[in-house]
Structures are given as C-alpha cells and as structure tokens.
Automatic annotation (TrEMBL):
Top-level division of the source organism's lineage: Bacteria
Domain TRAM: 367-441
Keyword field contains Cell inner membrane: no
Cellular component terms per the entry's GO annotation: cytosol; ribosome
Classification via InterPro entries: Elp3/MiaA/NifB-like_rSAM, Methylthiotransferase, Methylthiotransferase_CS, Methylthiotransferase_N, Methylthiotransferase_N_sf, NA-bd_OB-fold, Ribosomal_uS12_MeSTrfase_RimO, rSAM
Record domain Radical SAM core: where: 133-364
GO BP terms: tRNA modification
Species, as recorded: Candidatus Cryptobacteroides faecipullorum
Family listed: Belongs to the methylthiotransferase family. RimO subfamily.
Cofactor note: Binds 2 [4Fe-4S] clusters. One cluster is coordinated with 3 cysteines and an exchangeable S-adenosyl-L-methionine.
Protein name listed in UniProt: Ribosomal protein uS12 methylthiotransferase RimO
Length: 443
C-alpha cells in the first residue's frame, strides 16, 4: 500500500510579486506533497506563510496571520509552520525569539533552503515552473526582482536588494508554459516594470518584451503594472496603441503632485513633468485607463501640499486610484532624515477625504461607460451572475462587471463552462466601483 503523502498549504500576504514566489515554490513541492487551496480551513501537515514587510499595516497583517497559525498549530490543525518572505527578511533576528512556535524562518529569496526544509532536494526549472494560485485563465509574470530606486519612504530596496531583470528567454519560456496551462491574460509585474532590461541589455526593454509575449499562442491580454514615471519608456505607449493584445491600461504609481513633497520623496520628477506625462499617455493611447497610487501624510505635506494633491486628482480624473498613509520605516532615508510630524488621526482624515473624492470620480467614469459594448473575460460564476473584467479592470485591485446568466445569449452553454472565456457585453449600469452588463454573444 502506497504511503500517504503529506499535505502542504501556502498562504501569501502582500503583493502579487509575493504570489509568484509562492507559485514557484509550490511547483516544486507538488512532487512530494498534496497541495491544499489557500482558503482551505481544514488544517495541513505543513503550512508555509509568505509574508509582507512593506509598511506598518502590512507588517501587522503578516504578524497576525502567523499568530493565528500558531494558535491553530497548538490546537493540532498544523504539524509544522515555516515563514518566509519580506517580513522575515527584514527582521531575521527578532522574529524567532518573539514567535518561537514557528518551526523555521527563511528570507525573501531563500527558496532553495525552504525547499530543502520541505524535503525537496531535486529542483528543476525553478524559474519557469508555476503552480497557479490564481484562476487558471490569468497569471502574474514577474519580470525582475529588487529595485535600484531610493524613494525616501520605501524599504523595498533594503529588503529585496538591487534590480535584477529576468532574461527574456526565461520569461518567454515561462509565459509559453502558462499559456499551455490555459492562461489567457498575463499581468506583467516588478518593483518597476519600466526599468526592465537596463542591467542585462543596457537599455529599457519592456516594449520589446511585450512584443515577444504577444506572439505566444493563447495569450490574448497583456497588462502592465507598477510603472515608475521617471524615465518612462515612450515606446511602450507605441506598443500599447498598436498591439491589440496589450491592454490600454497602465498602473503608474505617482505618489504625489506637490514639487516639495516629490523632492522629499526622492521621486526625481516634479508636478509639471508629471502632468505632461499624463497628457502624453492619453494623447498617444486614446482611451487608456490610468491607475495610480498616492501617499498622504508624507513629511513635507502640509495643508497646502495636500490641497495640491486633491486639485490634481480632480484635474487628472484617474479611472483607478489607491492610497495609503505614510508609515515611517526603519532603514529608509525618510526615517533617518525627516520628522514624521503629521498625526495618525490627520493622516487618516486626509486619506478619507482623498478616497471620497476618488469615489465620486470613479462613479462619473463608470457612468460614462454605460452603453459601451466591450470584450470581457469571465473570472467566476456565483448565484446566477458572472463576475467579469474588461481590459480596463485588473484583478484583485479594481472593480468588476457583473452579468446575469442568459442561456439564450450564450447558446445554451452551461454557466460554469464559460469561466475563463471571453464575452462581448453591453454596459447597462454603474456604481462607484462595479458595472452591470448584459451578454451580447460569446467570443
């Protein structure tokens, strides 16, 4: 009788870049373990937690997840717990003493030691193989590791190290493997996607990479995230405007608009330059939807500077906008050279005011789309409703398009058979986050 295989569960905290790391680990672990879903609540022989250590709230969430797992281990739900990722990379000396119930700790890039701990000594094609934890029709493609930027507020370079691009041939091989598994949408990610290629090829190569990825059979959408504004490669806009596989969607974290704050952040751009870049993007890629991120309460942001930020958001009218409050992080330039003078209460008030403004802008944007006929991908089906996205919505961070199942419109197809497929739909309603649509036809 065959020996029963042990079970392994992985929980990923933080960003999609961490998710890719977890998927590479699981692709190797599947040879020795039965892999349980991330939302599995029945316990496991071994639990691995990939942590985030970016800002205060993210660190707290990771610590709470570890503590919850420890309590479940005491109750017998988990046999072993191993923790890796950014939090344990950042606090390698402190954490083992604070949470001794964790069986093993590893850094953000300690993949081989973690696999050895799991009993996996034969590792093949680590950089290419993936065990997807997303729905099978989309996947994140991490094109580089680390960051050479030194933004005053950001601890990522201290945690992840210098920027290192993944060679084009490895990325194409990985994307081909994903396409063979049924992936139709690639979401290109990195700490800064626009920096891709500078270390390997001596020039920015994102546009060239997009062209190669779009040539892969089965890949129908390619989406770009995390593009730094300084030095943004304009040839990417040419590709976006001319290549139908590259979504007219750009995630470009701007962080602020005040010249004073941008200088203190070490962003290497000013407000006038930022406005010009936004105008150029919209002129060269008609219909592009821009997603950005802002920080409120950064040192140097007084009432005047925050007012400038609000005025800019009203003016620019981003289709998507996220924001977070400044967190003083040890090891950063900001923590060492600036005083964090804005109270937590005032930071939260500014955040609430900014997001209230953005919700009004988002509602206007969504209402403007009523009547549009768009191509969508079906992410899921529940209670008679399809959850979908167009090229203008990214998974996990943006709103959704909700569509009632219509047997006649889909030619009698079973509802679940269309998950991962493309539909043509008409937008019929909108709120500040989501859209309502009706099916025109299956594509």
């Amino acid at each position: 009788m065959a020996e029963k295989r042990q079970t392994l569960q992985a929980i990923t905290m933080g960003c999609s870049k961490n998710r890719v790391d977890t998927e590479h680990i699981l692709a190797q672990a599947v040879s020795c373990y039965d892999i349980l879903p991330e939302d599995w609540d029945g316990g496991a022989d071994c639990l691995i937690i990939n942590t985030c250590g970016f800002i205060g709230d993210a660190k707290e969430e990771s610590v709470q997840m570890i503590l919850q797992a420890v309590e479940r281990k005491k109750a017998g739900d988990y046999g072993r717990i191993a923790v890796f990722g950014c939090l344990s990379q950042r606090y390698p000396d402190e954490l083992p003493g604070l949470i001794p119930e964790v069986d093993a700790w590893f850094g953000a890039r300690d993949f081989r030691p973690l696999l050895e701990y799991l009993g996996i000594t034969s590792v093949g094609d680590f950089e290419i193989k993936r065990q997807l934890t997303t729905p099978s029709h989309y996947a994140y493609l991490k094109i580089s590791e680390g960051c050479d930027r030194r933004c005053a507020y950001c601890a990522i370079p201290h945690i992840r190290g210098r920027h290192v691009s993944v060679p084009e041939e490895e990325l194409v091989a990985e994307a081909e493997m994903l396409a063979a598994k049924g992936v139709k949408e690639l979401i290109v990610i990195a700490q800064d996607t626009t920096y891709y290629g500078l270390d390997l090829y001596g020039k920015r190569m994102l546009a060239d990479l997009l062209g190669k990825l779009s040539g892969i059979d089965g890949i129908e959408w390619i989406r770009i995230h995390y593009s730094y504004p300084d030095g943004f490669p304009r040839d990417v806009l040419d590709v976006m405007a001319s290549n139908p596989k590259v979504c007219r969607y750009m995630d470009i974290p701007l962080q602020h608009i005040s010249d004073k704050v941008l200088e203190m952040m070490h962003r290497h751009v000013d407000g006038e330059w930022t406005r010009a870049l936004i105008r150029e993007m919209r002129e060269r890629v008609p219909g592009v939807v821009l997603r950005t991120t802002m920080i409120v309460g950064h040192p140097g942001e007084g009432k005047k500077e925050f007012g400038e930020l609000l005025d800019f958001v009203r003016e620019a009218r981003f289709g998507r906008l996220g924001a977070f409050t400044y967190s003083e992080e040890e090891g950063t330039y900001g923590a060492e050279h600036y005083k964090d003078t804005v109270s937590s209460k005032e930071k939260q008030r500014r955040l609430d005011e900014l997001m209230t403004l953005q919700s009004e802008i988002s509602l206007d944007f969504n209402r403007s789309r009523v009547g549009d006929e768009v191509k969508v991908i079906v992410d899921g089906f529940s209670d008679g409703v399809y959850v979908c996205r167009s090229e203008f919505e990214s998974p996990e961070v943006d709103g959704e398009i909700l569509i009632k199942y219509d047997s006649q419109a889909v030619g009698g197809a079973e509802p679940y058979s269309l998950v991962g497929e493309f539909l043509e739909v008409r937008i019929t309603g909108a709120d500040e986050y989501d859209l309502i649509g009706e099916i025109i036809r299956v594509l």
